[in-house]
Design a protein that fits this description.
By secondary structure, the chain is α+β, with helices and mostly antiparallel strands. It has 11 helices and 15 strands. The strands form 6 sheets. Strands 8-9-15-12 form a 4-stranded mixed sheet. It binds zinc ion (ZN).
């Protein structure tokens, strides 16, 4: 069947757009039917060169060709690898490339739902790749803890069905897509957001060829304060438990744990509970600490009996309570 387009043009698989164009021009001049009248081989060769150029000069069709080879048009028609929401989810986050997908950036407060993308792709000599659209996503701390999913709809770049994404039909610019080779269609899908994301975490997905960067904001929590992988919280304990020692119940993001308070625990003392903090991004089995600050609660509405006992305690401690 068709020869390898790169061989046809005599270029390397990594050749840039300029090299593709230069190789095409050189060969087209050489094999042009006007110059090689009556030579069947030359005509055939010219067609091949033309075809190779049409496919390789368009980044989208070239990408398909690189991936599917001679079957690239079928792959494109079938559409499964590029248009299906299911497939998209699995391509969403590549655990082997976490470094790329997540990096700290500026946070900020945004709407809690995805906005529909209105991104436009810019094309020009210097813009070979689609610009990434940034989409804010706001999560609860619980969602950041467990990981979650979000529905996402973007204007995805889809290969033009009229020209199979080539942009050219019979050497004329395709009218359906104005020679662009693609059109924008709504693409829906579900994005997995991994456990451990924090303010400013960026999750990159590519639905329909459109790069989307989700910028995460985590809502403040009523009970837990977060600092990286560590959480902190406060618990109130009766003063008697603080003095005599007791087992206190500490809420966590997954339930509660018991904290053994030693006798004479001071108000404001901080206890560290290992592995009760946030999961580490990319290694969710590792977790940060939970720091628990003790607030002692003094009794009110004392009975006469209790008041008498406190007076007795004060006498024993040798404090008069006033000068
Ligand atoms: Zn078209």
């Amino acid at each position: 069947m068709a020869s390898d387009y790169y061989n046809v043009l005599g270029i390397d698989r990594n050749a840039g757009e300029k090299e593709v164009r230069a190789a095409f021009r050189k060969l087209a001049r050489k094999y042009h039917p006007d110059i090689n009248r009556g030579e069947a081989n030359a005509t055939e060769r010219f067609k091949e060169i033309n075809e190779a150029h049409e496919v390789l000069s368009n980044p989208d069709s070239r990408r398909l060709y690189d991936r599917y080879g001679d079957n690239w048009r079928d792959a494109q028609r079938g559409g499964a690898p590029f248009q299906g929401g299911r497939r998209w989810r699995t391509e969403t986050i590549d655990p082997e490339a976490f470094e790329d997908f997540f990096s700290s950036g500026s946070g900020g407060f945004f709407d809690s739902f995805f906005r529909t993308a209105r991104g436009t792709r810019q094309r020009g000599p210097s813009a070979q790749r689609p610009l990434a659209i940034e989409q804010p996503v706001e999560l609860t701390l619980e969602e950041a803890f467990h990981g979650t999913t979000r529905a996402l709809q973007v204007a995805g770049q889809m290969p033009c069905s009229a020209c199979n994404g080539v942009g050219v039909i019979s050497r004329q610019a395709c009218r359906a897509c104005l020679g662009q080779g693609y059109s924008y269609q709504p693409v829906r899908g579900e994005v997995s957001i991994p456990a451990g994301v924090d303010n400013g975490s960026r999750v990159r997905v590519s639905p329909g060829g459109q790069q989307v960067v989700l910028v995460v904001t985590v809502q403040p929590h009523l009970r837990f304060e977060r600092k990286g992988e560590d959480l902190s919280t406060e618990i109130t304990v009766p003063v008697y438990d603080a003095i005599l020692g007791a087992e206190a119940v500490v809420p966590t993001l997954t339930g509660q744990v018991a904290l053994k308070l030693p006798p004479e625990s001071q108000n404001g003392r901080v206890f560290r509970l290992g592995r009760q903090g946030m999961p580490k991004l990319g290694a969710p089995s590792e977790r940060g600490n939970l720091f628990v600050t003790i607030r002692t609660e003094l009794p009110t509405d004392l009975s006469d009996e209790e008041r008498g006992m406190f007076e007795r305690l004060r006498e024993i401690r040798g404090n008069s309570g006033g000068e």
